[in-house]
Structure formats: C-alpha cells, structure tokens
Amino acid sequence: MTPVELSRTVLRAVRRAVDEGELRVAVPERALVSVPGPGGCGDYATNIALQLARPAGEPPLRVAEILRPRLADADGVADVVVTGPGFINISLRETAPAALVEEILRRGTRYGFVEGPGVPGRSDGHAGARARSGHGDFFGQVLQLHCAHDVRAVVVTDVLARLLRSQGALVRTSCEGRPELEWEAVLGARVDAHGSVESPAPLGVGVRPVPAPADPLPLGRDAARWALLHPAGHDRPRITDEHLAQRESNPLFRVRYAHARTRALGRNAADLGFGAEPGDVRHDVAVLLADHPRVLAQAAAHRAPDRLARHLVSVADAVLPLLPAVLPRGAEKPSAAHRARLALAEAAGTVLAGGLSLLGIDAPEHL
C-alpha cells in the first residue's frame, strides 16, 4: 500500500464512521500520513483524529477508537494502534504491491514530485499528489534562497532549489558574491543572481552550511557533489579520494552500482525473452520505495539534501540482495515471480536515478 492509498483508506474509514452515524463531521479532502513520531509505532501514523475532534465534538481518543476497527479491516493493513492524545499508528503487510511498482514505473524519475494543474506528467488530482508525499505546503509558493559565497553553499542551494521545485514551489536563487566560474563549469552549480538582491518572495531563506575544509573540484562533478551533500549541513564534509573509490565501502559507489545493476537486469531479461510485470513481492525495499515521496518532501521542508542522499543509500542497500533472484537460473523458465521481481528492481532503479538527478549526480547505465 502506497502512502496515497493509505491516505484514501483513512478517508474511507472516516466516511464509513459518518455514514454509520458514529461521527458527525464533514469528511476532509485529505488525510495526512507520515512516519510515526516519538512514542509511535508501525509504518505510518495519522493525526486525523486530532484534526476531526473539535468539529466532531468528541475527544481525539474517542475519534481514534471509532476509526481504529475500520482501519484494521482494510486490505493491506496488519495492525492499528492508538497512541498519545489520539495518533493512529498503522502497520502494513510486508509486500511490494503491484500498484506501487506500477506507479513508480509510470511516473518514472518524477515519482515523488507534487504535480499540479497544468504541470506535465500530472496523472491525478492535486490533493492526491500532495497526500502521496504527506506534504503540500510548498505548492505555488515563491521562495528566495540566498547563500553564502562558498562552494558548498552554492551546491546545496542548487539542490535545495531542485527539491523545492519537485514539491511545486517557484524558486529563485542568489549568492552573496559572484560564484567562481569553475563551480558551474565543473560542479554544474549555478544561481540566478549574485550580490545584494531584492527578494521577490515573502520569505528569504539563508543557506549557510559548514564550509568544506578543502577544494572539492579535483574530485570531479559527481564525487564532489556527493562529498558536499551527503553530510548534514552542520557537519564538516570530508574531501578525500574515498568518494572516488569503486568499492563497497563507498556509499556513492553502492548507489550508482545498484542503479546500473537494475538496468543490466532489464537488458539481460530482454535477451532471455521476458520483461517486467508488476506483481506483489515480499521485500524490504518496498517500504523504502513507498517512502520516497515523503523523503523528498521532508528534505525540501528541512532544507536537508542529506536526507535524500542517505535515503538513496538505504534503497541501494535494500535492493542489492534482491537482484540475484531476478533472473531464472540454468534451465529454469521465466515465471510470474521473476517478472514481478524484475519490475520491483526496475522501480528501485528508477527511484535511485531520480534521486541522483535531484542531487545533480549522474546515474550511469553501465558501471
């Protein structure tokens, strides 16, 4: 079950409670689902009971208890627990549903983007797209990102602009001084303006991560950007040749290797005469793929591209153990399970490619 499907499941539970006379409230247009906070449990949590308590004239805990059995009966839900003042925590069954894989493959590297009216690639309603990520606060906003005259700050600003635009924001970037020409030529990082600029946005955002201790340009575009983006903004990045190493200890290598392996499997499957067909597959990578829209939204909200970088490492580490089981072995014939596993692997590769693109890093087909 994807986050957008879970949001709809929550709304259906509210509608059932209203139809059966246990709640007197207008059914909202969307239900926010997110990763449980401190004290929570399960895969996702929703504050819908707190949202409805006042208009329903009921305590939040009472609203939560009304909704709990209706959610517990829903397909794909394993358990429902109420915690705190009325948060509903939901555990999902451990499968990668065909619907999730189909959605990722259909939307491609724009999976997780908030699409709005008139935006190419829009395939569902604006409210539904926002529910998929669990956030929608940036849609249509005009934001100004103004950064320090520092190579790391310019690279982070470039990626933050990409992340915010993926969530529907209109972003303008500027730097305190004229960026060095090499920052754009080598790293592909640019800003719209420099110097003292007047912000067109109601809220200007200052971008000042801890500067790099050494010049990252000798690492080249991909490794340098990863070195600057993978650590949190308050941490000092390490500018060393380890980011160029083609070995398992290098997180960037693992991410790009996992992507290249998924693409190679697609080519090998075609040589064997079969292709991907989404189906239900039990695998840990499914939870991470379903969580991708929320990660993009939170990386944008918290101005933290490192969250996306770490998420890509988690996706890569989760999908790599799946890959040896994708192709049939020996005289084995391709089955529905092979096609479903191939589709899941291709979906993971799509998420890795889209995430690397947002970071400004190449996702090679061969490695």
Automatic annotation (TrEMBL):
Q: Which GO terms describe its molecular function?
A: arginine-tRNA ligase activity; ATP binding
Where is each Arginyl tRNA synthetase N-terminal domain found?
4-92
Single GO biological process annotation from the record: arginyl-tRNA aminoacylation
Give the matching SUPFAM superfamilies.
Anticodon-binding domain of a subclass of class I aminoacyl-tRNA synthetases, Arginyl-tRNA synthetase (ArgRS), N-terminal 'additional' domain
DALR anticodon binding domain segment(s): 255-367
Which chemical reaction does it catalyze? tRNA(Arg) + L-arginine + ATP = L-arginyl-tRNA(Arg) + AMP + diphosphate
Q: Which SMART domains match?
A: Arg_tRNA_synt_N (SM01016), DALR_1 (SM00836)
Identify the EC number(s). Answer: 6.1.1.19
- Identify one Gene Ontology CC term for this UniProt entry: cytoplasm
Gene3D superfamilies according to UniProt? Arginyl tRNA synthetase N-terminal domain (3.30.1360.70), Isoleucyl-tRNA Synthetase, Domain 1 (1.10.730.10)
The protein in question is named: arginine--tRNA ligase
Mind listing the UniProt keywords for this protein, alphabetically? ATP-binding, Ligase, Nucleotide-binding
Q: Which NCBIfam families would you find in this protein's record?
A: ArgS_rel_codon
Q: A Pfam family for this UniProt protein?
A: Arg_tRNA_synt_N
Name of the top EC class for this enzyme: ligase
Q: Which InterPro entries match?
A: Arg-tRNA-ligase (IPR001278), Arg-tRNA-synth_N (IPR005148), Arg-tRNA-synth_N_sf (IPR036695), DALR_anticod-bd (IPR008909), tRNAsynth_Ia_anticodon-bd (IPR009080)
